[in-house]
User: Which sequence fits this backbone?
């Protein structure tokens, strides 16, 4: 279970390194964006065979359990390995893909292994609300904070504990930590490998837990620009937004006024004005607080223009509810209540909110 984010320290594909070391890989399973990362958000198209190693590629993105189980059976595996790069935010889809594959392995009674990689946002802080299980989705597979403060290996151990508690088929994952005993930020002073077409820089990963919430609104989160999530805006925004955000004295970030024209996504081809987040101190920066502050400012300044997007279909929750992990943020906006109150006491030590077993070294 891998893609282009899985590389060695000299930037070789981990698949090629494993094959060279004698591991008998028989199939590749790919997540959103495909094996080579060519597909945009919400897509995963790619060739059915990797021509470099002549192995079949199974597209697992958002598959129902029955189809995923069929793929695992068809591949005739002895072991299922996961090697992906997470970004530390609950609504990133790679963790959901790992969890789905881990559960398929458990149903098939296959051993499951995670080749762990560092969380680029570090593992010393968790931030934001814990997912309400009623809002479980592909962008919220476990009841964890929005900025979760875990590695994929730790998320795998948490999944095993959660599934065992709820009576689901469970096998304890083997987690190979390697260089993953790195608790701080990894983006500074190291080369950044973009884990998706819209996660171009370390700064993007820093702001994503906050400005990613704008995907549930009618404000552009910057898709279709060269700096998605770092910049945001709409045709009806003016200079008052950045003035108000600066007056809030948000820690670890400078907000600059910006104009842009998205090439795709919301307001494609239309001039937009808004803000650009320059993270000056990643340790002090609080992305969820910042995202809530942006939403609060938009609601205050543009009550007639700023909207929460309607659900994609009648039976589905609004996208903002799935991103936030409950209906609390949307309801406060609808009632014209202070959304910044949702940020109270949300900075947590991960070791205080998760079972100790997930931090054990393997």
Assistant:
């Amino acid at each position: 279970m891998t893609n282009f984010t899985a590389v060695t320290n000299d930037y070789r594909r981990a698949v090629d390194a494993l094959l060279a070391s004698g591991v008998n890989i028989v199939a590749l399973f790919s997540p959103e964006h495909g094996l080579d990362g060519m597909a945009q958000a919400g897509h995963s198209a790619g060739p059915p065979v990797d021509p470099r190693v002549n192995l079949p590629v199974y597209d697992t993105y958002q598959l129902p359990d029955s189809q995923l189980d069929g793929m695992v059976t068809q591949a005739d595996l002895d072991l299922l390995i996961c090697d992906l790069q997470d970004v530390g935010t609950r609504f990133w889809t790679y963790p959901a893909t790992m969890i789905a594959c881990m559960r398929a392995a458990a149903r098939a009674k296959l051993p499951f292994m995670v080749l762990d990689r560092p969380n680029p946002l570090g593992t010393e802080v968790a931030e934001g609300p814990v997912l309400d299980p009623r809002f479980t989705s592909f962008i919220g597979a476990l009841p964890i904070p929005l900025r979760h403060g875990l590695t994929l290996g730790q998320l795998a151990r948490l999944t095993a504990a959660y599934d065992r508690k709820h009576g689901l088929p469970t096998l304890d994952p083997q987690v190979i930590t390697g260089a993953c005993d790195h608790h701080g930020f990894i983006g500074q002073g190291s080369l950044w490998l973009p884990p998706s077409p819209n996660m171009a820089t370390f700064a993007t990963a820093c702001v994503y837990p906050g400005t990613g919430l704008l995907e549930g609104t009618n404000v552009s989160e910057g898709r279709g620009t060269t700096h998605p999530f770092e910049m945001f805006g709409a045709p009806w925004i003016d200079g008052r937004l950045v003035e108000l955000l600066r007056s809030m004295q948000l820690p670890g970030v400078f907000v600059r006024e910006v104009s842009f024209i998205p090439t795709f996504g919301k307001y494609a081809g239309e001039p937009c004005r808004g803000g650009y987040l320059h993270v000056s101190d990643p340790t002090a920066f609080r992305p969820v607080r910042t995202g809530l502050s942006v939403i609060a400012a938009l609601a205050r300044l543009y009550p007639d223009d700023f909207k929460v997007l309607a659900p994609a279909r009648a039976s589905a929750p609004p996208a903002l509810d799935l991103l936030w992990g409950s209906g609390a943020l949307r309801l406060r906006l609808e009632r014209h209540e202070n959304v910044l109150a949702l940020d109270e006491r949300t900075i947590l030590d991960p070791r205080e909110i998760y079972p100790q077993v997930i931090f054990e070294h393997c």
User: Anything to note?
Assistant: The chain is about 25% helix and 15% strand. The first strand starts at residue 28 and ends at 30. Residues 93-107 form the longest helix (15 residues).
